[in-house]
User: Fold DNA-binding transcriptional regulator, GntR family from Halomonas cupida.
Amino acid sequence: MVHDSRQRWERLGAAQRRTEEIYVTLRDRICLLHYQPGAKLSESELAAEFGVSRTPIRRSLLRLELEHLAERRQGMQTVVTSFDFASLKDVYVIRMILEEQLDRLSPAPQWWKIEEGYRALRQQCEPLMESPDLETLGRLHLALQHEHAGIIENDRAREILMQLYFQISRIWLSMVPRMDWRSEVESVANELDQSLEAIKQRDIRQLGRIRKEAIEANVKRLERLDAELELEATREG
Assistant:
């Protein structure tokens, strides 16, 4: 990533770093569907797993709640939230609007240094086309979002881009098994190819448009699949 958060990380105390690590681990587990909707996130079990007190677990769960990835239910039990395409469609719209304004979100002076990271991600696409692995594809997609958002120096703007992504990342990944695998990997590869060309030209507005168009194309594919699934459910009902 162009944006270097090393100094901010170093300013955190040991306890804060550990809490951040736990939060990231839990968040990624949710986004990669390790934890399915409704799964219980037990403070005591997680504290035992990570070898910490309940305090950092509680803080991590609170962040997940604020990002709508978890919710507190009756009896103070925290569970992974459910999700569906229809209710979160507006999040895609917001993401597309922000991507069109990418050049106005405080990009780093030498933002094009993301090229190396993008090329590394592009190299991961070819093996995936021949050897389907849902988690690897999910991690690739997540890494692409991190690289893309990493060009933004404004901490708040970058956090918003990531939070919006986390809210909807599970939708696409959960539907991939019902879609054409090779086409989905190719869609990521094509976005990377076009992005690399925009980076080469140092055209950040074009980079934002490419990301916006990729999101828009993804939405259209999800809309078609969602309609097909609703039709199937109606027929079965």
